[in-house]
Design goal:
Layout lengths: L1 H21 L8 H13 L3 H16 L5 H21 L10 H21 L7 H12 L3 H17 L3 H24 L4 E7 L3 H11 L5 E6 L6 E10 L3 H11 L4 E7 L9
Antiparallel strand pairs: 1-3, 1-4, 2-3
Membrane topology: Multi-pass membrane protein
Main location: membrane
Protein name: DUF2179 domain-containing protein
């Protein structure tokens, strides 16, 4: 039920981005939806009609190479998305005077939509279906093929919507990726920190008492002095990173600290 809700919300947001922001302002997209938009700009064929036709053709082939749960979710996703496209196409949207704003907000809505859809384990990119088939048959890299197919759609857009609006499309795609990553990472992102200090015991103790968290100790050897040192490794919520650094600097101003972005954390104990 949760996945169905996510797919519905994501499809609604993506459809709004396409019909209310992209179409009125001559902005394209990547993947199959981008191809449908280019068909609309060049031939006037409704994306609400061309999108499901292209998807059905791809799924008819891809059903042999894709996991059955993914096929079922994608079919549901495409049906809902196409329905929203068809409905909102008839809702008049006035072009925005500043195309850059249109591109940014199209990216925001698209990114939010994709974030919900990916959370549900589904997809509306279309190019991922082709990428999986080529990976299965020829062993081609999934990410590389998906990127190449999306790039091909954008390049074709130069000849249909022109170079200026193609650049706006690239801005929309970039913003969309940032927002999608933000949704997938969650609002409460985390940081991993490596801390090297001779006062590691005191730092570890204050981490436990003041941050209600815990640190893992690794043993490492400095290449220059050939001395064995203990390295603290801790994962904290991003909003507590500054407090942790203040604690470390109070104990050892010369402590060596490396901060990493963490894509996903599960298990273990985090405050």
């Amino acid at each position: 039920m949760k996945n169905i809700l996510y797919i519905t919300i994501g499809s609604l947001l993506f459809a709004l981005a396409v019909t209310q922001l992209a179409m009125p302002n001559s902005i394209a997209e990547g993947g199959i939806v981008g191809a449908s938009l280019l068909i609309y700009y060049s031939a006037g064929l409704s994306p609400g009609l061309s999108t499901p036709i292209i998807f059905v053709a791809l799924l008819a082939i891809g059903v042999w190479y894709l996991p059955k749960p993914m096929v079922l979710k994608t079919i549901f996703n495409v049906a809902i998305f196409s329905l929203f496209l068809w409905f909102f196409e008839d809702v008049y949207a006035k072009p925005i005077e500043d195309p850059l704003l249109a591109a940014i907000f199209a990216g925001v809505f698209t990114g939010l939509g994709f974030g919900f859809i990916y959370q549900a384990g589904s997809s509306v990119g279309g190019s991922s279906i082709i990428a999986r088939m080529l990976n299965h048959q020829l062993g081609w890299d999934l990410t590389g093929v998906t990127f190449a197919l999306d790039a091909l759609v954008v390049i074709v857009g130069v000849f249909i919507i022109g170079p200026i609006f193609t650049m706006y499309t690239l801005i929309a795609l970039y913003v969309g990726k940032l927002v999608t990553d933000f949704v997938l990472d969650g609002f409460d992102s985390k940081k991993a920190m490596n801390i090297i200090s001779p006062h590691y015991e005191e730092i570890s103790k204050r981490i436990t008492t003041e941050l209600a968290s815990s640190a893992t100790v690794f043993y490492g050897t400095g290449e220059y002095l050939k001395e064995q040192r203990r390295v603290l490794y801790i994962v904290v919520h991003s909003h507590r990173q500054l407090k942790l650094k203040r604690i470390i600097k109070e104990i050892d101003p010369d402590a060596f600290i490396v901060v990493h972005n963490v894509k996903d954390v599960s298990g273990g104990f985090i405050s």
